[in-house]
User: Fold these one by one.
Assistant:
Number 1:
Amino acid sequence: MSHKIAVIAGDGIGTEVMPEGLRVLEAAAERFNIALSFEHFDFASCDYYLEHGQMLPDDWFDILSKFDAIYYGAVGWPDKVPDHISLWGSILQFRRAFDQYINLRPCRLIPGIKSPLADREPGDIDFYVVRENTEGEYSSVGGRMFEGTEREVVIQDTVMTRTGIDRVLKYAFELAAKRPRRKLTSATKSNGISITMPYWDERVKAMATNYPDVTVDQYHIDILTANFVMHPDWFDVVVASNLFGDILSDLGPACTGTIGVAPSANINPEGRFPSMFEPVHGSAPDIAGKGIANPIGQIWSGAMMLEHLGFEDAGKAIVEAIENVLKEGPEQAPLTPDLKGKGDTQALGKAIAEALSAG
Ligand code: NAD
Ligand code: IPM
Ligand code: MN
């Protein structure tokens, strides 16, 4: 039986890193004898919007529901389509409609990459951000009133549900319980956001009683961002609301050298709907078209996809191939400029695919 993957490259560097992600997935499929079939879609991109006046075809839900997973590049091109239209019309829509309530974002300093934080070595930074992915600050509840007048009012509510919080906390606690350090950090802001965030803290406390072996701490998001920089070694599993998780999952990878390597898995743990795998980064208009985007975030996301589909060995082998190429350093390996190298997107993708096939 072939595993069906919907491929959406999207915009900007999404179209450049996706072929490298697929190159490595094909190498993994061959080495591990996995049957994967890819179907490419041009929707959920700004060019599709310019042609059709909408980001998605009317039957997108039925089309994508039939796949085992969605492999996404990046979306957004603010000069063509306002970001809130392109993003709410694509990735944010998928996360909600397919109930991908977990956004799992590993963050690890890999040998061969220099952290911008002085004296940080591999091993010092190795944690997961578990981001709530379907509610919270990303809500469509609100409105704009008295537009254009001096009394103009704009409101956007945060929505937190007990079910929504508890399910992401449960996932994060389970993950922490499986890791050697068994530590969970909760991102909060209950000193200032006085209704939703105290509720979040309350649910963390309640969930913690089920996991006596997991050490729990919490920080307000302001000092937590500072601690990511000052003490990244404190963290193991960090659980956060939608917005806080978004911020932490760019900051964490930045501390590991570049956001270009960071992967993410948008997971519907029950498997009722397809899960979606995409790099953390966006379409990077500033470097798009130059062929220098780092493809590792896309490739590593492919590894997470294979693990999710049950091919743990293949996923691990891809990560090992990434590590083997990176540890050669920018003089030997064709690393991209964000890794201080002189290589390009394709050369780095090829090097990783070759390392995987050789392994
Ligand atoms: P971005 O992640 O696209 O870029 C931020 C910076 O990081 C840029 O300087 C860029 O060159 C660099 N960068 C990003 N990925 C890189 C890579 N693989 N290799 C090397 N350098 C890389 O964030 P942005 O500039 O805020 O957003 C650009 C567009 O992408 C916007 O439309 C935004 O809404 C969208 N976006 C989409 C996603 C997504 O599809 N999941 C995520 C973030 C932003
Ligand atoms: C991400 C992105 C998206 C988010 C944007 C593009 C809507 O930043 O996947 O991290 O905020 O979730
Ligand atoms: Mn983000």
Note: The pocket of nicotinamide-adenine-dinucleotide (ligand 1) is lined by residues 13, 17, 74-78, 83, 87, 91, 259-260, 278, 281-287, 293-294, 297, 338 (CB under 6 Å).
Number 2:
Amino acid sequence: MSSVSDAAEIFRTVMGRTPEGEWVAPGRVNVIGEHTDHSEGLALPIALPQRVVVAAARRDDRHLVIHSAQMPDDRRTLRLDELEPGDASSHRVGSGADSPGGVDGWAAYVAGVAWALREAGHHLGGVDIVVDGDVPQGAGLSSSAALECATALALRDLFSLAVSRPELVRLAQRAENDFVGVPCGILDQSASLLATAGHALLLDVRSQTSEQIFFDLAAAGLTLLVIDTRTVRALVDGEYAARQQACLRAARQLGLPALRDATLDDVRGLADAELRRRARHVVTENARVAETAAILRGGGGGDVRAIGPLLTASHISLRDDFEVTVPQLDVAAAAAVAAGAYGARMTGGGFGGCVIALVDEDRADQVAVEVRREFARLGFQPPTHFRAVPSPGAHRIG
Ligand code: GAF
């Protein structure tokens, strides 16, 4: 994979001119608050240093030309005015080598943002876009949201659109929900556009407000280890939607607007055992986010290590109540804790992807080695790891 700083150079090569600018948007890990966003709840993500970069320049016509450094043979040329969700072939220009496919796969995330902006009444023109990046794909680190958010910021700046970041968050989510067809909540786009360096973003989905909470693990001699189990995950396979629907159903049966409003007493009153488990996860997870935020703000005597047990409790709840883990995630979390992590949990939508572990900085590599050893013992493919440093949200770099 090429370095993200190559995007402008690739643009010059493939588009034959200089881009007007470059914009980056990060992937994320969610520290805690999983599967709460679709119940109007709380979440606490950080932005990662891994990011998507978009180099772009306006065109004289109304075409959207998109090239990906990762998929160089898959350049798309689309008609801006004909972008519509659901019909992958209708917006192609011609049928030559320039337009080998409709808006499916990676290009739909870019085209979807243009569509969502257009639908919201913003005036766009044609644009050449080159996409590059180093957010691992399919690892639950929000490479898709990063692509949407970098595109959104680029289009806003290029066409001087009067649209705030919170509006861009909603438009990027709309692109994913209604154009790409993935029923995600608003967590990932919020993290990518609203997070700031050195902070975790406390997101309150109901009130659509957020708070930057100082998150300086290094000062406490700690680090957040990300262990990529390299198990495939996809939100499109129906399990995500099934969980979302279960939460809506549980809220409806309780006569509440959303599970955000439920108490554990309410949950006990649900007749169906599976719905009870799903709802219990959401209710307890929201409480864990609030507790984590209080500790990080200094309410726990200032010791960040105190969030460890909350992370582990979150994982257990996602495993037993929400049932979105897979053996690799469970093994990685348990092995990290056994190796000395203060707490560990899966992060993201689940069904594969990554685990985060709160560890002493000087133990981090050893914890990774021990997780790897446990994977080898069980015949799982070797995991990879890196340290998550709370990084800036989407911004222009050139
Ligand atoms: C995925 C979704 F895209 C988010 O909206 C969120 O629901 C997350 O899974 C689970 O917390 O990343």
Note: The first strand starts at residue 21 and ends at 32.
